[in-house]
Amino acid sequence: MTHDVHIIGGGLAGSEAAWQLGRRGVRVRLSEMRGSGTTTPAHQGDGLAELVCSNSFRSDDDERNAVGLLHHEMRQLDSLIMRAGEVARVAAGSAMAVDRDVFSAEVARELNALPTVSVVRERVDRLPHAGLTIVATGPLTAEELAQSIVAATGEDRLAFFDAIAPIVHRDSIDMDVCWFQSRWNKGDGKDYINCPMTREQYAAFHQGLLDGEKTEFREWEASTPYFEGCMPIEVMAARGFDTLRFGPMKPVGLDDPRTATPEFPQGRWPHAVVQLRQDNKLGTLWNMVGFQTKLKYSAQVELFRTIPGLEKAEFARLGGLHRNTFLNSPTLLDRQLRLRAAPHIRFAGQITGCEGYVESGAVGLLAGIMTACELTGRSWQAPPRTTALGALLAHITGDAEADSYQPMNINFGLFPPLPDIRKKARKEAYTARAKADLGAWQAAIAA
Question: Residue 233: how many CB atoms within 10 A of its CB?
Fold first, then answer.
């Protein structure tokens, strides 16, 4: 079958993009290398949209939860991932979990039923030089194709080692304990939030890093080397008691105003400092600088809440360190997910720097609709940033800081803030606003 769009990768994003295009009458060639004699270290079979880790799509609560809201918005746009998820759904309380085999089979059944979609088992090693293309190869993109992407983007390399630091919601940080200051007062004075530690607090924290339960490397990650620039904090701690105080927890040049005296009117330097840096343009999310870690999630929450000022910290994302492949999308992609250097190519799914099954499918959904608009000559109108789809798209294509761009799940910290809303009512207000704005957007694009 002659195709209008070539999709590379049959995971959640590629399958969703193929569905959105195919049901609009666009002819699609969906290339999936599994089943052609090639696989990845993570996949178990060759099914489309195989779930390689958890079988959960997380919360289905669309009144108080950001990922539940994303579920709702995708259902409104007739998402294949949500459609197949309902067929394969298993009991999981308020979460949406699926039988992974039934889910994959249902995705394949729906796509195979579309006469406009052709699933081809083949490995693609190079980006096409022409023709509308969506690359949705995920975090384990094959080496040959990854090198082709490197050549096309002009980057030295893709990020093959994903060093993730925890991200904290700004409104959960105790500013009666912490203070704003850049080291040596460089910058505008509010570039960093500083959490001070005494020697006793630092010693206890250091020991906690050494003793905390760590996640073991998966077999296929074992050969991935550490890079000095993204060293796990517990590995640094094991190098010596004061290593962190000369690294990410360095107190030099930071004056704690709460220790001010007539002799030291600006305050004294703490024994150690945990710094947080603004992570999004809205200022609602702050990342813990240098805190990439392999501590298990429960150990992270317990230990990081011992940091002064973070006792009640709420985490938009916890830390991690694993092999990954993703683009610096805010730099490389335009607002329609097109590669700036080769605009006939779009990227979708986890390779763009979204994190999670549902987020991957959501970006595939958007890429499919964008491409359909381009083919039919309809102008593309992005969903409002007040919606989950719009907030995720904005984060990937421009709201995130390019210098510190890392994979991210959907969370309310990506949404434009709502002023003067009590904390208990804030989540409901976010979802109510999003649903109203999504409805108006759908009506506009359908007109």
Answer: 23
